[in-house]
Write a structure and sequence with these properties.
Elements lengths: L2 H19 L5 H14 L4 E11 L2 E13 L3 E6 L6 H14 L3 E6 L9 E5 L6
Parallel strand pairs: 3-4
Antiparallel strand pairs: 1-2, 2-3, 4-5
Helix pairs in contact: 1-2
């Protein structure tokens, strides 16, 4: 699957989870439910993945922890907030740059409508 194909499945699964559970729960609840839903849809999902980074020529084993990594291609950062900050929006972009991955999503399950809580980030990914 391409990154964009994985991304489409992620979006559909996130909407299904949000539709069923609604906003206002803890991030962890959405993480567990989304991981289950993505696995049900045939995707390989890792949760709370330690991601190494290189700084000053030195590799650090735990540069950050990604909430979810789907198919080893797409990084997901989950939130459950009434509003996202600019830093929240830039976080996934930084993750992509540091890991040299090309697609990530910030998914805010605190939004009233899930479509308003989806922020797509790309790092050199061409459109299909």
């Amino acid at each position: 699957m391409t990154e964009n194909e994985v991304g489409s499945t992620v979006i559909n699964a996130a909407i299904a989870v949000h539709r069923e559970l609604g906003p206002g729960l803890l991030e962890h609840v959405y993480e567990v439910a989304l991981a289950h839903e993505l696995t049900k849809r045939g995707l390989h999902v890792k949760r709370q993945v330690s991601m190494p980074i290189v700084f000053d020529g030195i590799e650090f084993e735990e540069g950050f922890r990604a909430d979810m990594l789907v198919e080893d291609k797409v990084i997901l950062e989950l939130k459950s907030a009434s509003q996202l900050t600019m830093v929240d929006r830039k976080q996934v972009q930084t993750y992509l740059r540091l890991t040299k991955r090309r697609l990530g999503y910030l998914l805010n399950f605190g939004a009233v409508l899930m479509k308003d809580g989806i922020v797509r980030a790309v790092n050199g990914l061409p459109e299909d």
